[in-house]
Amino acid sequence: MSKNNVNKIIRALIVSDFFLFFSIGLLAPIFAVFILNNIANKIEVIGYAVAAYWAARVISVVPFSRLMDKMTGEMDEYFFMILGTMIVSSIPLFYIISSEPWHIYLLQIISGLANSLAVPAWRILFTHHVDKPIIGLEWSLEDVGVGVATAASAMIGAFVADRFGFNLLFVMYFICGLISVSILLSLGQIKKSIIKELFRRPGDKAPLKIDGIK
């Protein structure tokens, strides 16, 4: 493979992230509207919901990341990335049956914990397999993918929620999330054995950023 070509693992991670952020973008800009219209007509509930998510995430992300650091190889990150992404993708289905503010708070806490699994694991794998001659290009492709997915899904999500309601939007979120998970699972089919590719190289360190996106 040419040193200027994006390798297959990085391509899979970028495409998977595109679909994950597309699913998140369907709901994120109008989540407050859902809460006001369907859960409680109180602005404070929105603030508490956001706080619940971030409290769970910032408290758990360092312990989860340290656990990944201590485990040999990268199969742990691979597992946590898939598990966390699957949980994040499934949570909107439970919004359909939510009726009380505490339901939302609980789901937000679970979402924060799931992101604490998926986000650091994704970053570790991306960092370990990034092509050093084109590090800037590959990170910029990830950034472009996230931006395009978020912008497009924000428009689509608002349209769907306005015309057809939030329940359909939640199902769309779940389906797009499943596509993301399926792409991550396909890493096992890239070459004959992903295990040979997913071993930690000595001295590598993954960035740990606590922010809204990767």
TrEMBL record:
<protein>
    <recommendedName>
        <fullName>Major facilitator superfamily (MFS) profile domain-containing protein</fullName>
    </recommendedName>
</protein>
<feature type="transmembrane region" description="Helical">
    <location>
        <begin position="12"/>
        <end position="39"/>
    </location>
</feature>
<dbReference type="InterPro" id="IPR011701">
    <property type="entry name" value="MFS"/>
</dbReference>
<dbReference type="InterPro" id="IPR052528">
    <property type="entry name" value="Sugar_transport-like"/>
</dbReference>
<dbReference type="InterPro" id="IPR020846">
    <property type="entry name" value="MFS_dom"/>
</dbReference>
<feature type="transmembrane region" description="Helical">
    <location>
        <begin position="137"/>
        <end position="160"/>
    </location>
</feature>
<feature type="transmembrane region" description="Helical">
    <location>
        <begin position="45"/>
        <end position="66"/>
    </location>
</feature>
<keyword id="KW-1133">Transmembrane helix</keyword>
<dbReference type="InterPro" id="IPR036259">
    <property type="entry name" value="MFS_trans_sf"/>
</dbReference>
<dbReference type="GO" id="GO:0022857">
    <property type="term" value="F:transmembrane transporter activity"/>
</dbReference>
<feature type="transmembrane region" description="Helical">
    <location>
        <begin position="166"/>
        <end position="187"/>
    </location>
</feature>
<dbReference type="Pfam" id="PF07690">
    <property type="entry name" value="MFS_1"/>
</dbReference>
<feature type="domain" description="Major facilitator superfamily (MFS) profile">
    <location>
        <begin position="9"/>
        <end position="214"/>
    </location>
</feature>
<feature type="transmembrane region" description="Helical">
    <location>
        <begin position="78"/>
        <end position="98"/>
    </location>
</feature>
<keyword id="KW-0472">Membrane</keyword>
<keyword id="KW-0812">Transmembrane</keyword>
<feature type="transmembrane region" description="Helical">
    <location>
        <begin position="104"/>
        <end position="125"/>
    </location>
</feature>
